[in-house]
Amino acid sequence: MKYSYYPGCTLRTKAKDLDVYARASAAALGIELIEVEDWQCCGGVYPLGSDEIATKLSSVRALNAAKEKGQDLVTMCSACHHVIKRVNDDMKNVEDIRTRANNYMELEEPYAGETEVLHFLEVLRDRVGFDELKKRVKNPLKGKKIGAYYGCLLLRPSKLLSFDDPENPKIIEDFIRAIGAEPVIYPYRNECCGGYISLKEKDMSKNMCEKIMASAEGFGAEMLTTACPLCLYNLNKSTGAKLPVVYFTELLAEALGVKDEVKEEVQK
Amino acid sequence: MSSQKKQAELIKEISGVNPLKCMKCGKCSATCPSYNEMDIKPHQFVSYVINEDIESLVNSKSLWKCLSCFACVERCPRDVKPGKLIDAARQVVVRQKDQNYLLADEIPELIDPDLPQQLLVSAFRRYRR
Fold this sequence. Notes:
The structure holds two protein chains of two kinds. Chain A is of the alpha/beta class. Chain A folds into two domains: 2-120, Glutathione S-transferase Yfyf (Class Pi), Chain A, domain 2 (Up-down Bundle); 136-267, Rossmann fold, CATH 3.40.50. In chain A, 47% of the residues lie in helices and 11% in strands. Chain A has 13 helices and eight strands. Chain B has helices at 3-15, 27-31, 42-50, 54-58, 71-75, 82-94, 107-110, 117-127. By secondary structure, chain B is mostly helical. Chain B has two domains: 3-96, Fumarate Reductase Iron-sulfur Protein, Chain B, domain 2 (Orthogonal Bundle); 102-129, no CATH class. The longest helix of chain B is centred in the first third of the chain and has 13 residues, at 3-15. The chains are: A alpha/beta, B mainly alpha. Chain A binds chain B through residues 8-10, 13-15, 41, 43-51, 55, 77, 79, 152, 155-158, 166, 191-192, 194-201, 204, 208, 229-230, 232-233, 236, and chain B through 13-16, 33-34, 37, 64-65, 67-71, 73-74, 83-84, 87-88, 91, 102, 110, 114-123, 125-127.
């Protein structure tokens, strides 16, 4: 299985663990992640204004690069996934944006949303299959009670993201089961951590994260897992319950028995 | 056309939202994680646009409290998208000269060694041009 891969800005810096463990796990599963050449930052948040064009072009470039290779485009970070998936929908379905973006791009063949965008969790669910993943696990994380923290970016708006049921998602819980651990379902798993508000209004985000942490702890979680570097950062700033928060790829690498091989790369 | 009317039209155009679809059920406000911090509540954004009181809207605290988490968008039974409306009001402000809500000079005070790049690029995109 060969895929184009879009890591995004934070996976090269503060969230190296998300990227390094993903690559090691993918290799162990026979998945080839080929990094998009010269990718540019997606911008972190989807530009909501219907007249926004220039702010979407970095996503279009990555999408078109995957199209030219005839590959699906895999994302790892929730924010990159959200932005690129929504821009792809614009390119496919909004004629005005498609026309104007292509005017900037000057491609040999206009881009019209042909690429399929997959979050790595979707690759595991829909391409590998959780049953198959379970068979490949060498080191099942037995007895670990893990709360999935979805946040907002992977799930909403659900019509566009079509990732999972936005109110009762189960993809990360199914993932947790596949790697041998026990998922803990708690009410705040799909509520927002505060996102970018934590730059200027740290207390607002702190309050939200305390609710999330308390909710997860109250339902018996020993740790949380996420796909978003900003969620991880905000949750770690919570001053209430202090559950450890790790990327889902770290759990995956541990279960597949490849974590120790690449541990040092994360520290670099 | 008065400038308030023009701005109301602009907000509708940028957001692509038709505020007349709203039936005032209040689900958006009930689900908003920033509700307590907002002076104008999500279900009221719509009325301010309908009443063309853009002055109050763009000067509200709420403008900078929305997280774009799409809880209101997802849970609206009428597909009104209050979150897009408030972002459009924010755009009407930051697209003017010297109206950025976040300045580069502020950044050193706001960051710490764990802060992810994602947070900076996201805030820059929402708070300034």
